[in-house]
Amino acid sequence: MQWYAIFVEARREDRLKKCIERTCPEDSIKALVPKRKLIERRQGKEYERILTLFPGYVFVRACMDGFDVYYKLSKLPGVISILKDGVYPVDVPEEEMNIILSLTRFGEVIDFSNLYREGDKIKVSSGPLEGLEGIIYKYDHRKKRAKVIINLLDTEKRVDLGANMITREV
Predict the structure, then answer these.
(1) pLDDT for res 29
(2) What is the DSSP-derived secondary structure letter of residue 165?
(3) CATH architecture classification, 2-165
(4) What is the pTM of this model?
(5) 10-15 long-range contacts, CB within 8 A, separation 24+
(6) Are 124 and 115 in contact (CB under 8 A)?
(7) Which one, 10, 44, 69, 99, has least CB within 10 Å?
């Protein structure tokens, strides 16, 4: 079974995930909509907000050897297309999907990570980014966000993840 990306209408990712779970319970299909928790400021106050990590995408783990599952998924409401190369659906490469699965290992919502500086490098003491220091390229103190690069289907996606910079006690 491989992971595939379904391109959906904006802000309909959760609706499609529920639809997949409702219409395909007998099939061994797993849907994933990764989300992230961020701090946003409005009028001097900080608010926690949960946003979709990749708007417009739902990841599905399924066996699409035949076209039965493909056609079943492509006919669901809100689906624009299942990403494919010509005729056949393209699976998300395992190394790219492993990063997304690692970030969502504590749940579908990617929570805050605790970061600290060690020289010029940013290290992670705890949280979903633990062990993934290589994808962090910057930290924004004001917005409390780690700027990360995630490759998805041979495209570099730059996303913000919630993070706190702490002082590491020696």
Answers:
(1) 87
(2) E
(3) 2-Layer Sandwich (3.30)
(4) 0.89
(5) 10/55, 10/56, 11/52, 11/55, 12/78, 13/52, 13/55, 13/56, 13/57, 13/58, 15/77, 15/78
(6) yes
(7) 44
